[in-house]
Amino acid sequence: MGDPGSEIIESVPPAGPEASESTTDENEDDIQFVSILFPKMPKRQGDFLHFLNMKKVKTDTENNEVSKNHCELSKAKEPHFEYIEPPIIEEKPSRSSKEEIDNLVLPDCWNEKQAFMFTEQYKWLEIKEGKLGCKDCSTVRHLGSKAEKHVHVSKEWIAYLVTPNGSNKTTRQASLRKKIREHDVSKAHGKIQDLLKESTNDSISNLVHKQNNKNIDATVKVFNTVYSLVKHNRPLSDIEGAIELQEKNGEVNCLNTRYSATRIAEHIAKEMKMKIFKNIIEENAKICIIIDEASTVSKKSTLVIYLQCTIQSAPAPIMLFVALKELVSTTAEYIFNTLLTTLNDCGFTNEYLKANLIAFCSDGANTILGRKSGVATKLLENFPEIIIWNCLNHRLQLSLDDSISEIKQINHFKIFLDKIYSIYHQPNKNQTNPLGTVAKELETEIIKIGRVMGPRWAACSLQAATAVWHAYPILYMHFSHSFCGLAKRLANINFLQDLALMIDILEEFSVLSTALQSRSTNIQKAQKLIKRTIRALENLKIGTGKYESQIEDLIKSDKFKDIPFNKNNKFNALPRNILLDNIIQHMNLRLLSDGNHESIFNYFDLLEPSTWPYEEITSPWIAGEKKLFHLCEILKYEVDLNDFREFVNNNIKSNNVSIPATIQKAKKIVSTIAINSAEAERGFHLMNIICTRVRNSLTIDHVSDLMTINLLGKELADWDATPFVKSWSNCNHRLATDTRVRQKSTKVFHENQLALWNLQ
Question: Are 461 and 453 in contact, with CB atoms under 8 Å apart?
Fold first, then answer.
């Protein structure tokens, strides 16, 4: 066989009587043919020609059937054609092979015979659009379990992108010969051939499928490990120890560093959000946005974003964590842009928000709910007719603070607790003051006394007040030695009465605040709870509270016997009735009659038969149907008029009736409106658990990913990692069986440590 890189001169053998010439003449003609075919061949090319001839001898038996077809046209001329020297080049391809080559676009340095010869010599070689490729590598594509470090399949040979290099024809031919040879003897191509041999009794697709399953099973174990660490709020660096244990038990995993764990956590969080939010958008669910602002342990301002939505399969609205975003600026404009960009990135386009965003809830910060240029105002400009809702828990605390601030008498109770707060929240006092030891004996953490009637929820104020109540004798004993002024206040019976009154009031506020924070509390249930608390405060105004009724017995008890109680006119008691009247008035103003919310409550009452004026209702209820039209605009959902009339008629006749479908969905949409930002506060609590002082190097995006998995992910026992591993593989990430990943650092033991175990 001649040099495949040299130019081949076509020579068609004569037909007819010349086919019976002697073998000697044939050999002479062949020698002459070879000299014409390969003129002045360099030694290097001659050696390469000899290699190809020897390889042809070895493979001729395997390709016997193909050779027979190639020899059919030449047998009339050469009946005794037995050798495999250069005359083999004269063998013409079968008609079908010839037609295939004729239809190919060949490299510019090859002709048809060269292309045929190379594709016959290298069965894996294919030509497409003038470029070379490997059909075996393009079939298998990945080494799978046979992958090694620094060994990978060439992308150019897979994608048919191999082209010659050089400025002249000879150089370009030599370039192709070199590339073909190097790929043929490459380690990666050899492993591909081994895989093909293993697939003799199985299809390539099944082989790849089985191998992929093996790779996926190994990677699933790594994903489960990362998922468990995130769910338990453990540092991702713990994966090295966890994987080391798995390897000790016989598992082999290459994704064993914290860098791999971080990438895996990012991928899981991204896939979770993509799947969940895609389902919400496809269902065209109505949503309510909840945001709040706070700072991390590293003093970075962050914005936490939640949304509450109603879906067909869930009986109650679902609260979903969206993202935690870092705020470079805390202006309303920047917060609004960050919020809108985040929602758009999650798939909630502006068109979707215009059709399905029904409410926005946050605390009362001016930046967010300011009437002139707050975030809520900007949302109304872009998405009109949405409900802007101020967190009820914050409004509840503000109603109490407003009531206290309107009292003209000096509030000695508040001054005293603020003084305690300032004393015991100094670092040296916290650590060295002997009061801490005494308080522990009474199972009371007096150091945790916080401010009351400040920017905290009612439950926090109640905790501070009850701490003072339980530690009252201890506080007096301590202050009588070091703070005489504070001891005198404690000895004043008016102060004890004020403390008891405030605890009774704060208990009612705490009960209401806790009920409002419940995930099952909707806007209509909240209205009922507020009215119930107002009635309880009115009853307190008439009678005495639980703690007020204990004062006389406490003064006579052994615990309080060492306190010389007196009535000091310098410290007047709080005006009890005025305080309670102010609280009731402000609760009505802030919680029940706040701007447009009063009219919104009236519209929502259409869906609650218990609030209907039955004595005014006739069938059909014309006044109710007029309100129904406005309710549909608020909810951005059309309630069927016939369903509403049936709903009214059934409730007039009986209390226990079935609710029509459109009425049921409207009630669920009303429940979608969040009444407080308690969920955002829970999110910040989780953020503080994740981003501790030890892990304060975590970026906000990483914290957001960890919160996503923690808040949206299933429990580990119910979580299936396989879909996440497959999407990980589809993103061209490396699997656990791939050795071409960053290796974890190995711990080096000192010789003295190892010597202990070498003792005889």
Answer: yes
Return the closest-CA partner of residue 632 out of 420, 385, 450: 385
Q: How many CA atoms lie within 13 A of 700 on its CB side?
A: 18
- 301-309 and 287-295 as β-strands: parallel, antiparallel, unpaired? antiparallel
Two structure tokens written together for 11: 């020579």
Q: Is the pTM of this model over 0.85?
A: no
In angstroms, the CA 88 to CA 117 distance is 10
In terms of C-beta density within 10 A (0-12 exposed, 13-18 middle, 19 or more buried), how is residue 111 classed? middle
Q: Widest CA span of the chain, in angstroms?
A: 144
Quick: pLDDT tens for 662-703.
Answer: 999 999 999 999 988 888 888 888 988 888 777 767 889 999
- Give the C-alpha separation, 520 to 338, whole Å: 29
Q: Are 226 and 735 spatial neighbours (Cβ–Cβ below 8 Å)?
A: no
Buried b (16+ CB within 10 A) or exposed e, 366-390: ebbbeeeebbbbbbeeebeebbbbb
Beta bridge partners of 505: none
Report d(CA 247, CA 254) in Å as an integer. 10
- SS3 state at 318: strand
**What residues contact 530, with CB distance under 8 A and at least 6 apart?**
392, 512, 587, 591, 592
Tokens of 563: 């306190």
Residue 509: how many CB atoms within 10 A of its CB? 23
What's the CA gap between 394 and 362, in Å, rounded? Answer: 9
Please state the rounded mean pLDDT for residues 99-126.
Answer: 83
Question: How many helices (H) and strands (E) are present in the chain, helices listed first?
Answer: 35, 7
Locate all alpha helices (DSSP H) within 75-203, ordered by sequence.
Answer: 95-103, 112-121, 135-140, 155-158, 169-184, 187-198
Q: What is the DSSP string of 228-294?
A: HHHHTT--GGGHHHHHHHHHHTT---S--SHHHHHHHHHHHHHHHHHHHHHHHHHHT--EEEEEEEE
* Distance between CA atoms of residues 681 and 671, nearest Å: 20
For the stretch 15-74, pLDDT in tens is 443 333 344 444 444 444 344 334 444 444 444 444 444 444 344 444 444 344 443 433
CA angle 248, 251, 254 (to 5 degrees): 105
Cα-Cα-Cα-Cα dihedral sign, residues 238, 247, 742, 143: negative
Nearest-CA neighbor of 651 among 602, 604, 612?
Answer: 612
318-326 vs 357-362, strand pairing mode: unpaired
Q: Which SS3 state, helix, strand or coil, does residue 320 take?
A: strand
What is the total residue count of the chain? 760
